[in-house]
Amino acid sequence: MRHLPYALRFVIATAAIGALAALVWAGTTKIVVEGEAYYSIKPSMAVATSEVASGGKYVQIPLRRPHAATETDPADDGHAKYRVKAPADGNYRLWALCSWYDGCGNSFFVIVDENPATIIGQDGTYQRWHWVKGPRVQLSAGWHWIKIQNREDGAKLDQFMLTTSERYVPVAKEAPTPEFIAKPQ
Q1: pLDDT tens per residue, the chain (185 residues)?
Q2: Could you tell me the residue range of the domain that residue 127 belongs to?
Q3: Number of folded domains in the chain?
Q4: What region, left, alpha or beta, does residue 167 occupy, with left being phi > 0 and alpha being psi -120 to 50 degrees?
Q5: Does residue 6 fall inside a structural domain?
Q6: Is there a domain that residue 13 lies in?
Q7: Looking at the whole model, is its pTM more than 0.70?
């Protein structure tokens, strides 16, 4: 390769790096679920509409008045339950596209299958949609239950995503993957 002109060596090296990146990305799984694509829903979790939400809808724990000045236990176990298919065994990162009301309305519980609840949220970005990094979960190939449950009123969920990529960080709305989601018959 030394005898090739520099520009040609650069093109070949760039193509090789691109091909390697494509191979790495080809082995990555990304499952994107719309908040309103639930299998079942229990109040106080509710569907709401917004022009800025993906698909025009999202799920939320409605804001109660008076809103707590400090965090308290949830008033109920309202939740949205999703049936999601993992195409392969793997370690998946959960991400959620959320909008928080304030510091006392900025989290949900996430329950995967029968595992203990974990908290997603508690960041300080309020009143706008943004992606929140959630837990890593080990999934076997096949169907799994994911429950997004009430922790604080005023929390909203537009989408969530499971990805096997260690490096992928979502920044905008993602294209849904309905082939990985079961709906009730």
Answers
A1: 566 666 555 545 554 444 333 334 446 899 999 999 999 999 999 999 999 999 999 999 998 877 777 666 677 899 999 999 999 999 999 999 999 999 989 999 999 999 999 999 999 999 999 999 999 999 999 999 999 999 999 999 999 999 999 999 999 999 999 999 998 87
A2: 29-182
A3: 1
A4: alpha
A5: no
A6: no
A7: yes
